[in-house]
Design goal:
Largest sheet: 6 strands, mixed
Strand content: 5-15%
Shape: globular
Strand order of the largest sheet: 3-1-2-4-6-5
Distance between the termini: 46 Å
Length: 331
């Protein structure tokens, strides 16, 4: 909760969710896991149930909060996870819901079900959290290998909005999408590196030498990109905070920027800020989908997200962008 108005804000969100899904509001409280958004646990009951309660419920675990006092099972109609973002673009949460649908439709990975989406609000099925386990990590690696074996119609999301955090992603013109394996270097430079470089430079986050290194990389990306990679379905924002370890024994993926992309991007992002049991995740992945020479290309595939962080948070990430570009050029 943010200050004394937190209870009122939770009730307002819970009431909105109840109107969308039907039934009464029993409980609404803030939880962790929303990143740039506010996140809420909302418990709904039949309309005849008791009046709602609110309580602060801070936690660092995605989609998690200490449960309120137990109630009879008959009154526990549904628990959901809600996300809100004031002044979000009208299509912001619709884009996230579309990304979740893209991942779900592959049949390869677990994602929360989408209960409702409207302007400024996304409601997902609640996924009970659990600790990371070796079995979940190995299953996640196999799930990602299956996801990345799923062809995408083109790179990006032509004709559809997509966001990376709060920043919009661009894609090739729908009439001329990038569909060939040889298209990835040009796509990545034009639509994933240069737009965020320009934002980061505009806010003073990169020194001229670091910006020049990124520009040099973009000009020679086909030389360091590795084997040709046809468009594959990827999560697109797979840092460790978007892996939700669950009580049902299978890691769920959340907050996607799902698109046609390069599978190595997902793996590199898991390494960017650390991920529990990452060695097991990657070993299980590589048993099904070995990737020769991937380690040398990790800086290339992390650079996009470093540029996004520089564009959003400033110079603290600028030097890392330059270092990643130079490492990619040297590979």
């Amino acid at each position: 909760m943010r200050g004394s108005s937190g209870g009122r804000e939770a009730t307002a969100v819970g009431t909105r969710v109840a109107r969308l899904l039907g039934g009464g509001l029993r409980y609404a409280g803030a939880v962790g896991g929303g990143s740039i958004c506010a996140a809420w646990r909302v418990e709904l009951t039949p309309a005849s149930a008791s009046a709602p309660t609110t309580a602060p419920a801070p936690t660092t675990a995605p989609l998690a909060t200490p449960a309120p006092a137990p109630v009879p099972p008959a009154a526990r109609a549904r628990t959901v996870f809600a996300k809100t973002l004031p002044d979000a673009p009208p299509d912001f949460f619709a884009a996230e819901a579309a990304g979740l649908r893209d991942l779900r439709d592959t049949g390869a990975v677990a994602v929360p079900g989408t209960a409702a989406v409207t302007e400024g609000l996304l409601v997902l099925d609640w996924v009970e959290p659990g600790p990371p386990t070796p079995a979940q990590a190995e299953r996640l690696g196999r799930d990602l290998a299956a996801l990345h074996a799923t062809p995408a119609p083109s790179y990006g999301t032509p004709g559809r909005a997509a966001y990376l955090g709060p920043l919009p992603l661009t894609s090739p013109d729908p009439a001329h999408p990038a569909t060939r394996a040889a298209d990835w270097p040009a796509f990545h430079a034009e639509h994933r590196l240069l737009p965020f470089l320009r934002r980061a430079v505009d806010n003073g986050a990169l020194e001229p030498a670091d910006a020049a290194a990124v520009e040099r990389l973009c000009g020679t990306l086909d030389r360091v990109a590795g084997p040709p990679q046809p468009p594959a379905v990827i999560h697109g924002d797979l840092w460790s905070g978007n892996v939700h370890w669950s009580a049902d024994g299978r890691a769920h993926l959340v907050d996607p920027a799902a698109q046609g992309g390069h599978p190595e991007t997902d793996l590199a992002l898991l390494e960017l800020f650390g991920c529990p049991l990452l060695t097991r995740v990657l070993a299980a992945y590589e048993e099904l989908r070995p990737v020769d020479g991937r380690a040398a290309r990790v800086p290339l595939h992390q650079l996009q997200h470093l540029l996004v962080h520089a564009a959003l948070f400033g110079a603290g990430y600028g030097a890392r962008c330059g270092a990643a570009a130079r490492a990619a050029l040297a590979s």
